[in-house]
Amino acid sequence: VQLQASGGGLVQAGDSLRLSCAASGGAFSTYTMTWFRQVSGKEREFVAAIRSSGGSTHYADSVKGRFTISRDNTKNTLLLQMNSLKTEDTAVYYCAAGRPILSAITSIPMYYYWGQGTLVTVSS
């Protein structure tokens, strides 16, 4: 599966942004899809995940209530709607595909395929 993330940019605190991840070359609908993010010099961290059917979502506490993950299996597309952005949301955002068990859904090694990342910068 090839993943292509897009939609990053420079916004102000309080603004909204929507990230997209386009998938090709594989059975998108069979994978759990997840967004991670990484700040330079820090470890990559889990942001949000959505199960293959779209019926189950999971969020990091830091984004719960502000971010919404969704997917369209007919279009092989993953989305991340980010509202009420904060300066601490500044990072490179990566989409990833895998088949983790629930207890490992935030674990980076559980994901086989990764997009190239899209930079989100939130200014104060």
Explain what you see:
This protein is mainly β. 0% of the residues lie in helices and 51% in strands. It has no helices and eleven strands. It has strands spanning 2-6, 9-12, 17-24, 32-38, 45-50, 57-59, 67-72, 77-82, 91-98, 111-114, 118-123. The strands form two sheets. Strands 2, 4, 5, 6, 9, 10 and 11 form a seven-stranded mixed sheet that branches. The protein is globular. It starts with a strand and ends with a strand. The model has no long low-confidence stretch (mean pLDDT 96).
Question: Brief description of this entry?
Answer:
By secondary structure, the protein is an all-beta fold. It contains no helices and 11 strands.
Helix amount, in percent? under 10%
From the N-terminal CA to the C-terminal CA, the straight-line distance is 37 Å
Integer-rounded radius of gyration: 13 Å
Number of helices: 0
Task: Estimate what percentage of residues fall within beta strands.
Answer: over 45%
Could you say which overall geometry the principal axes of the C-alpha atoms support?
Answer: globular
Largest sheet: 7 strands, mixed
**SSE sequence, one letter per element:** EEEEEEEEEEE
Counted beta strands: 11
Outline the low-pLDDT stretches: none
Structural class: mainly beta
Mean pLDDT: 96
